[in-house]
Amino acid sequence: MKNGLRQSMSTVHTWSGLLLGWLLYVMFLCGTVAYFQEEVTRWMQPEVAPAHSQAEAVAGAQAWLTRHAGDALSWYIAPPGRRGAVTQVYWQPADPASGGRTSATLDGQGREVVARATSGGYFLYRLHFDLHYLPVIWARIIVGIAAMFMLVAILSGIITHKKIFADFFMLRFGKGQRSWLDAHNVTAVLALPFHLMITYTGLVSLASLYAPAPVAAAFTSGGAYYAAAFPTGASAAAAGVRQPLAPLGTMVLRATQVFDAREIGYLWVQSPGDRNASVAITTSPAAGFDTRGDTMLFDGVTGQPREPSPPRGTAQRAESVMVGIHAGRYANLPLRWLYFLSGVFGTAMVATGLVLWTAKRRQRLPDPERPHIGFRIVERMNVATIAGFPLALASYFLANRLLPVAASDRPDREIATLFIVWGIAALWAMIRRPQRAWRDIAAITALAFAAVPVVSLIAVGPSLSLAARHDSLIYPVFDLVMLVTAALAAVAARYAGLAATRTRRVAR
């Protein structure tokens, strides 16, 4: 009975991991990098100095918005936290049909950033659950299906491997299929609690999309649901009487005291410059496990606190905490590195599982040198994704340093570079023999990652100088991570080259 259960779970584990494994690999890799999305963005905008205080940054943003969007219906201000450097501002124009701009990036003093425009680490964060070039809803449905497959694969893998913890201590090199199985077991078990947590909480974060029936049964519309789930407090309609907005920096200082010095996440100003203006200040997701944060309401004209925001229920707080644990924004630096390393193990777990599928089945083929079309597709998709996407990621960083700083469409061109390079790598994987394609793409990936610090040195100057100027070690640490990644890719290229040589000898 037990053997029958394990055998059936083995089949479930194999196919649930394979069918969407390539997408899961990209999701894991981008999500892992996104644990340092603020730092990646700062590296990609080396001209921007960090802000001294949130209150100062908000005061500067208020002055800028008053000059450039004084007649807007609402403002949204996201000041830099302890890890960020810029203030993001958005506004809703009084005339939506005007077609003007609705956002800007400011420095800590409220000056518009004159630096290389980039989507930075935020793009990689969104890519891991919103994908790209697809409608957001469809992308999230696809990602949710992949996450469900991942959860099934993890649970069925636990049932299948009866010696999973014993095998954890076995890592044998140069043993072919046995080595890939050992690597898969080690990377899976080493961060198993993380893998379960990150997959389940990822599904919880979009539960209303994946399980819409309860929402439809309890609420008349999606707007009514969001108003109840994420209340912002009552606010009066605009009176049509102009009256200056009270200093937002002072409100931030007061809110910070009430929030026990917790970091501010964003401000939402309704009807700025109107007699009925209101301000909602919410704590940052980095301020604790509760990613939705606490909100404090102010009268926009007097600057005095209003009635407290409606309390949230236990279920809402539980959902908010699970989303916070998934995103890891609350984590201090050592814990964030632990998140990062666990994500690396998750990425390796998916990659080794995909390679293991081909390694196991090649031995069962009637003619391993002439496999059937399905096997060839899987084998080449492995190369295109596992080797090709890291190369695309390196090209994204290189594009940031090589594209003209003044180009108006720089963010789109950086993103396009990533997908173009990935497409070229995929094409190369399809036309070359797999072992040679592994070697070629891994070698180019090593060169690309090694080139990132060199190109950065030529384009913007030494990392140590940037670190001294901005009082931050982000720049040299980023270069070090690039070099370590290049070394790992070089080892992979050498291993693939030896495997290709061995394959040719066996064929002869």
From TrEMBL:
Domain of life: Bacteria
Keyword field: Membrane, Transmembrane, Transmembrane helix
Listed InterPro entries: PepSY-ass_TM (IPR005625)
Segments passing through the bilayer: 12-36, 137-159, 180-200, 337-359, 380-399, 415-431, 443-461, 473-496
Xref: Pfam families: PepSY_TM (PF03929)
PANTHER family per UniProt: IRON-REGULATED INNER MEMBRANE PROTEIN-RELATED (PTHR34219), PEPSY DOMAIN-CONTAINING PROTEIN (PTHR34219:SF4)
UniProt protein name: PepSY-associated TM helix domain-containing protein
